[in-house]
């Protein structure tokens, strides 16, 4: 049985490796990731994972996995920071408060059955000094990352508390992913 990873994220590939899983093929889905008007973060991230999965063609016998990760403050979705100004805005918003990181995973089994799971983690950062934000932005670590930060790097030192899945915050919740792969018939040790 072959596995397709519908993602260009090196983090998702690395995280799959932690399960002892190596995709046979990687395909980057090309979809419109614009949130719908008044779409809630939970609904948005699930829809994105499902649309990414549906956007990549599967061959006979292939299992496909796709995922999406967002950061949410209340009903506000913080996508990938496009530039330093947006990253600074995100960091100021996240400093000193709790926020959610949601990761959805969609697995399409070889028989075409799609299953989706959501991981919702709560993170609280310390209140940031402007100099800490400047230093973090200059590191380049948070560019192109949901919410403007990467939990597995320098930003981890700002975390007061986490409730939920660390791997989910990184971009692929391993517990949910493992269970989805097993339920789809894909062998996971």
From TrEMBL:
Is Hydrolase given among the entry's keywords?
yes
Secretion signal span: none
Superkingdom of origin organism? Bacteria
Instruction: Name the UniProt key words of this record, in alphabetical order.
Output: Cytoplasm, Hydrolase, Nucleotide metabolism
Location relative to the cell: Cytoplasm
**Main location group:** cytoplasm
Q: Is-annotated flag, keyword Hydrolase?
A: yes
Tell me the Pfam families matching this sequence: Maf
Active-site residue numbers:
68
| Described purpose of this protein according to its UniProt entry | Nucleoside triphosphate pyrophosphatase that hydrolyzes dTTP and UTP. May have a dual role in cell division arrest and in preventing the incorporation of modified nucleotides into cellular nucleic acids.
Q: Which HAMAP family does its entry note?
A: Maf (MF_00528)
Q: Which family does it belong to?
A: Belongs to the Maf family. YhdE subfamily.
Q: What is this protein called?
A: dTTP/UTP pyrophosphatase
Per the UniProt entry, what species is this protein from, by scientific name? Parasphingorhabdus cellanae
């Amino acid at each position: 049985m072959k596995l397709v990873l519908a993602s260009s994220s090196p983090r998702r590939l690395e995280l799959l490796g932690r399960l002892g899983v190596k995709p046979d093929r990687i395909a980057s889905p090309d979809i419109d990731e614009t949130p719908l008007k008044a779409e809630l973060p939970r609904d948005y991230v699930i829809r994105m994972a499902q649309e990414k999965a549906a956007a990549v063609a599967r061959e006979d016998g292939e299992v496909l996995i796709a995922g999406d990760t967002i950061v949410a403050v209340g009903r506000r979705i913080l996508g990938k920071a496009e530039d330093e100004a947006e990253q600074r805005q995100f960091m100021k918003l996240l400093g000193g408060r709790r926020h959610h990181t949601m990761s959805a995973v969609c697995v399409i089994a070889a028989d075409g059955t799609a299953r989706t799971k959501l991981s919702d983690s709560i993170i609280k950062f310390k209140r940031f000094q402007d100099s800490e934000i400047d230093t973090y932005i200059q590191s380049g670590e948070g560019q192109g990352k949901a919410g403007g930060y990467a939990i597995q790097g320098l930003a981890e030192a700002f975390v007061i508390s986490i409730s939920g899945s660390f791997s989910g915050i990184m971009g692929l919740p391993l517990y949910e992913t493992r269970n989805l792969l097993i339920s789809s018939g894909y062998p996971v040790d």
